[in-house]
Each structure stands twice: as structure tokens, then as C-alpha cells.
Amino acid sequence: MTEGNELDSTCGISDEELTERFKAAIRIDQEICRIKGLPIAGYDDETKCAYLEYPDGRRVYVKDWKTSWNHCFCRSKR
After folding, report:
1. What is the largest CA-CA distance in the chain?
2. Is the residue at 1 inside a domain?
3. C-beta of residue 58 within 8 angstroms of C-beta of residue 67
4. Domains: count for the chain
5. 22 and 11 in one domain?
6. Which residues contact 43 (CB under 8 A, 6 or more apart)?
7. What's the domain range around 33?
8. Which parts of 32-72 are beta strand (E)?
9. DSSP codes, 3-38
10. Residue 63 in contact with residue 56, Cβ under 8 Å?
């Protein structure tokens, strides 16, 4: 028998079930982003760097963020 926290016991959902639902929600959100043509944030363990992955498979790493199309949304307006 697994031990659950108070919130889980009142909702009747185990920690494992919450974890599975969370993973499913992330997967569904990523699929929606792919369908809409939006980039998905990720992290590359080899280079230890965050990136945006576009539906065409292209990755724009944080060190290259100024070359991405959304650079204008990240800088402050003067």
C-alpha cells in the first residue's frame, strides 16, 4: 500500500495517478503546440543548454536566442 498526502486522500487520487495525469497533460500540450506550429521548450543534457524546438525539427538554443524569429518579443521596448 502506498502512502498518499492529505490532498490526495481527500480527492481519492494516488501520487502515482497524479504523476501519470501530469505526464499525459504535458504530452497533450506538446502535441497541440506542434499542430499549431508553435515551438516547444526543451533542455539538452549533453550541451547543458535550453532550446526551443520548432515543428520542422529545428532547434534554437538559448545561446542563439537573438537569431530566432521571436527575439523581438523578448527584448524590452524603449
Report:
1. 59
2. no
3. no
4. 2
5. yes
6. 49, 50, 51
7. 7-38
8. 40-44, 49-53, 59-61
9. ---HHHHHHT--HHHHHHHHHHHHHHHHHHHHHHT-
10. no
pLDDT digits (tens, 9 = 90+) for 34-59: 889 999 999 999 988 999 998 888 99
Question: What mean pLDDT do residues 50-74 have?
Answer: 72
pLDDT at site 32: 93
Owner of C-alpha cell 500540450? 29
Tell me how far apart the terminal alpha carbons of the chain are, to the nearest angstrom.
59
Task: Locate 21 and state its grid cell.
Answer: 495525469
Q: Rounded to the nearest 5 degrees, what angle is found at the Cα of 65, between the Cα atoms of 39 and 30?
A: 15
Same domain, 46 and 76: yes
Buried b (16+ CB within 10 A) or exposed e, 16-38: eeeeeeeeeeeeeeeeebeeeee
